[in-house]
Amino acid sequence: MKKIISLLVLISSIVSAQIPQTKSLAELKQLAASSGNHPSSISHLVSGIKYPESSIQYPAFSKKSPALAILYSMLLPGMGELYAESYSSGKYFTIADGILWGTFAGFTIYGKQQEGNYKSFAQSNAGAVVNGKDSEYFANLGIYQSLDEYNQAMELNRRFDKTYNPATHYWNWTNPDQRKEYREIWTTSESAYTNVRFVVGALIINRVISVINAIRLVSNHNKNFSEELSWNIYMDVEDNTAIPNRLSLNFVTRL
Asked: Considering the domain boundaries, does residue 47 fall inside one?
C-alpha cells in the first residue's frame, strides 16, 4: 500500500512539472505560426511542425575607393561625386563641364573661320602666298605694308636671319586701309584661339576641384561606414524521452 501511495505522489509531481513546459511549447507554436515577417528566424521541428526560416538583411554598405573617385572626376567632373553617392553637389561640375566644352567648340569654330577669312583676304588683296606659312608671317602681314618694308626693318635692326625670300613670302597691300582691315580679322581669330586656351585651363581647373570634392565626399562616406550585420536566430525544441523537453536558441552573427 505504501508503495502505491509513493508511486502516485511521484507521478503527480512529474505531471505538475510538465504543465509549465507544455504551456511554453504552446506559446512557441503560436510564435512560430506568426513569424512570417518576424525579424528573427525560426526553423527546425516543433512537435512535428516545421516553420519557415527568415533573416534580417540590411542594405549593402561598402567603402568607396578614392582612386576610383579621382578617375571618374578626371574623365567627367561630377562622376566622382556620383560614385560617392552625393551627386547633389557633383551635378554642378557636370553642368559646368558641358558649358565649357560648348564654349570650347564655339571659340574653336569661330577662330578657324576667321583664320580662313584673313588668309583669303591677304591672298586676294596683297598677293600673299599663304600656304605653308607660320603664325609669325601672318602677324607681320598686319604690321608692315609690304615685304620690302619688312625686310628693310629687319636689316636696320641687324636681324638678317628674320628676312623673307620674296619668291616665297611676298606681299604688298594696295593701301593702308586694307592692311588694317586684314589686321582686324586676324586679331579676332587670334583672340578666339586665346579664349580657347583659357577654356582649356577652366576645364582642367573644373576637374581638379571636382577631384578634391569627390575625395572629401568619399572620405565622409567611409567615416560613416558601419559593419553590415545580419542576425539569424534558430529556435529548436529537442524532444528526448530520457530528459524533459528542452528549448535551444542559436545566434549567428555575420559581419
From this structure: yes
Supply the range of the domain harboring residue 244. 31-61+227-255
The number of C-alpha atoms within 13 Å of 79 and in the hemisphere containing its C-beta is 12
DSSP state of 131: T
Return the residue matching grid coordinates 530528459. Answer: 243
Read off φ and ψ for residue 51, nearest 5 degrees.
-105, 150
The dihedral over CA atoms of 154, 142, 106, 103, expressed in degrees to the nearest 10, equals 60
Q: What is the pLDDT of residues 77-120, one digit of tens each?
A: 999 999 998 899 899 999 999 999 999 999 999 999 999 999 99
What does pTM read for this prediction? 0.61
Q: 107 and 170: one domain?
A: yes
For 132-177, what is the HEC assignment? CCCHHHHHHHCCCCEHHHHHHHHHHCCCHHHCCCHHHHCCECCCHH
Please tell me whether residues 132 and 168 are part of one structural domain. yes
For residue 15, pLDDT over 80 is answered with no
Q: Do 217 and 84 form a contact (C-beta atoms < 8 A)?
A: yes
Could you tell me if residue 112 is inside a domain?
yes
